[in-house]
Design a protein that fits this description.
By secondary structure, the protein is mainly alpha-helical. The protein has 17 helices and five strands. It is found in: Membrane.
C-alpha cells in the first residue's frame, strides 16, 4: 500500500491532517510534522526510520505521507519493526490509531503558523477556538469571615490540568493586568460585585459570568498564550491578586513585544478606518438581534420553570384530595363509589405528575445552560468588541492631539536634535496606531468565528425541544390508562341505594 487514500483513512488521521496542515494545501508543515512525531515518545532511531520511509525527497510531506507516518508510528508503538511491508499487509484493513497524547500544544502551534504565514487572516474555526481550553468555575462551600461572607470559586483548566481557588478580587486583578498589556484586544467585562444582599441567584449568575470571562480569555489566540493568564490559572498559593500584581508589575503593553508591531503599516489596508466604521454599525445590529434572542429564550426557560412549578402544585392538590377523609356516608353517596375510585386514582397519579414537573425542570435547565448562556457568551464578546473600538477611538483622538502638540515647538525650533526627536515620537505614535488597527482587524475576524454560536444555539433548541417535549408527552401518555380506569365504565352496574323511600 504505497498510498493511503483519504476516504480509507480513519477519522483520527483526518483530524491530524487538519492540525498539521492548517492551510489545507496538501502540503504538511515540516515543523508541525516533527513535533507530531516527537509526541509519540518513540526512540529517535525509530523516528528516523519512519521519516526515511515517508519523506518524498521533495522538501515537504503530502497527506498520504502523513497517513503512512501515523500508521507506522502506531505499529512501532505496538512493538513491530518499522517497514513498508507493514503497510502493504494492511491493505484494505483499518489502520491502527497512534497514541500521541494531548494535542493542545499542536493546535496552538498550528494557529501561530497560520498567523505568521498570513497575518491578515485569522483563519480559525469555531471548533479550533473551543479546543484551546475548557475552563470550569464552580462555587466553593461558603466560608464566613469576621464580618462578611466570602464567596470563593474553584477554577479548573483542562489545558493546564490545574485546579485552583480564586476570589472575585483575583478576577479583577487579572482583568486590570490584561487591559494594561492587551489594550488592543477584546478583554471581557466582569460581572458586578455585590457585597450586601447577594442572594443565591445573584451568586449563580456571577459564577456563570466568571466562567464565560475565563473561557473567552483562555480561547483567545493571543491571550491564551500569555504568562499572566497562565499564572492566574495555575498559581496555587495565597494572596493571589497581590502576588500577581507584584509578579507582573510594570508589564509593557503588547506593542512593545509583538513582532508584528514593527511591520504593522504593511498589515493595515488603506481603507481600514472606513471599514471599521461600517463593521461597528453592523456589530450594533448583530448585538441588538442577539439581545432580543436572549430575552426571548430567557422567557422560554421561565415558562418551562413555571410549567414545572404548576405541575408540582397540581400534584400537591391531587395528593391533598386523595388523603382527605373518606366519604363513608351512604346517605351522601347513595351507594355511588366514584369518590373512592377517584381517591385511589389521585394517589397513583401524584408521582406521575411529579415526573412531568421534573421533566419540565430539566428542559428549563437545558434552555438556560445550552441556549441562554451561549447567547450571553456571544453578547459578552460583542460588548468586549465595543469596548475595544471605544478604546481605539479615544486612543486615536489622543494621538492626533499629541502629534499636533509636538508639531508646535518643532515649527519654532531649528535644532536638528529636537526636530529628530519629535519626528521619532510622531512615527512611533503612527506605528502604534497601525498596530491597534491591525489588532482590531484580527479581533473582528475572531467575532465572526464566534458567530457559529448561533448554529450551536439553534441545534440545542431543536434537540432540547424535540427530546424534552417528547419525554413530557410520553409521561402524559403513561397516565392515560390510569385516568381512563379511574371511574367504572358506563356498562358497569350502578349500585342501588339502601335509603328507605
Amino acid at each position: 500500500m504505497s498510498n493511503i487514500e483519504d476516504c480509507n483513512a480513519p477519522p483520527y488521521y483526518r483530524d491530524m491532517y487538519d492540525i498539521v496542515c492548517p492551510n489545507q494545501e496538501n502540503i504538511v508543515d515540516h515543523d508541525m510534522f516533527i513535533k507530531l512525531l516527537v509526541k509519540s515518545s518513540l526512540p529517535k532511531q525509530t523516528l528516523s526510520q519512519i521519516w526515511d520511509l515517508v519523506d518524498s525527497r521533495q522538501g515537504y510531506l503530502t497527506r498520504s505521507g502523513l497517513y503512512k507516518a501515523l500508521a507506522l508510528v502506531a505499529f512501532a508503538q505496538q512493538g513491530k519493526p518499522v517497514s513498508e511491508k507493514l503497510l502493504q499487509n494492511f491493505a484494505g484493513e483499518e489502520l491502527p490509531k497512534p497514541s500521541l497524547g494531548d494535542l493542545t500544544d499542536l493546535r496552538i502551534l498550528s494557529i501561530r503558523l497560520r498567523r505568521e504565514k498570513n497575518p491578515m487572516r485569522l483563519g480559525l474555526t469555531y471548533h479550533e477556538v473551543c479546543a484551546l481550553d475548557a475552563v470550569q468555575v464552580s462555587l466553593v462551600p461558603e466560608k464566613k469571615g469576621l464580618f462578611l461572607k466570602h464567596v470563593e470559586y474553584e477554577v479548573t483548566s483542562q489545558r493546564n490540568k490545574s485546579v485552583v481557588q480564586r476570589r472575585y478580587n483575583d478576577f479583577v486583578a487579572l482583568q486590570e493586568l490584561l487591559l494594561q498589556k492587551f489594550p488592543y484586544r477584546m478583554i471581557p467585562q466582569l460581572p458586578p460585585k455585590k457585597v450586601i444582599g447577594a442572594d443565591d441567584q445573584f451568586i449563580e449568575e456571577r459564577r456563570k459570568s466568571l466562567k464565560r470571562f475565563l473561557n473567552l480569555l483562555a480561547r483567545h489566540p493571543v491571550i491564551s498564550e500569555d504568562k499572566i493568564l497562565h499564572f492566574f490559572l495555575t498559581f496555587s498559593g495565597t494572596d493571589v491578586q497581590h502576588k500577581m500584581k507584584d509578579h507582573f508589575r510594570g508589564v509593557l503593553d503588547e506593542f512593545n513585544s509583538n513582532e508584528q508591531a514593527k511591520e504593522a503599516e504593511e498589515l493595515v489596508p488603506i481603507d481600514s478606518t472606513n471599514q471599521l466604521a461600517v463593521v461597528r454599525e453592523q456589530m450594533k445590529q448583530v448585538f441588538n438581534g442577539f439581545l432580543q434572542l436572549r430575552e426571548i429564550t430567557e422567557k422560554m426557560a421561565e415558562r418551562s420553570k413555571q410549567e414545572a412549578s404548576d405541575m408540582v402544585l397540581f400534584g400537591k392538590e391531587l395528593c391533598s384530595l386523595a388523603n382527605s377523609a373518606s366519604i363513608e356516608s351512604d346517605w351522601g353517596s347513595g351507594g355511588n363509589e366514584t369518590w373512592d375510585h377517584l381517591r385511589n386514582g389521585m394517589k397513583n397519579l401524584h408521582p406521575m405528575i411529579s415526573n412531568v414537573s421534573s421533566a419540565y425542570m430539566d428542559l428549563a435547565s437545558g434552555e438556560e445552560d445550552d441556549i441562554v448562556d451561549e447567547l450571553n457568551l456571544f453578547l459578552d464578546i460583542l460588548t468586549a468588541y465595543k469596548d475595544l473600538c471605544d478604546r481605539y477611538e479615544q486612543f486615536s483622538v489622543s494621538i492626533r492631539q499629541k502629534n499636533a502638540n509636538k508639531l508646535l515647538p518643532r515649527r519654532s525650533s531649528t535644532n536638528p536634535i529636537v526636530i529628530d526627536a519629535e519626528n521619532q515620537v510622531i512615527q512611533q505614535n503612527e506605528k502604534r496606531n497601525n498596530f491597534f488597527l491591525h489588532c482590531i482587524h484580527m479581533e473582528t475576524q475572531l467575532v465572526h468565528t464566534y458567530m457559529q454560536i448561533l448554529v450551536k444555539v439553534l441545534q440545542s433548541l431543536v434537540n432540547l425541544r424535540t427530546k424534552g417535549l417528547s419525554n413530557i408527552s410520553s409521561l402524559w401518555k403513561q397516565m392515560q390508562p390510569l385516568v381512563e380506569t379511574m371511574i367504572p365504565s358506563p356498562g358497569a352496574t350502578t349500585p342501588t341505594s339502601t335509603i328507605s323511600r
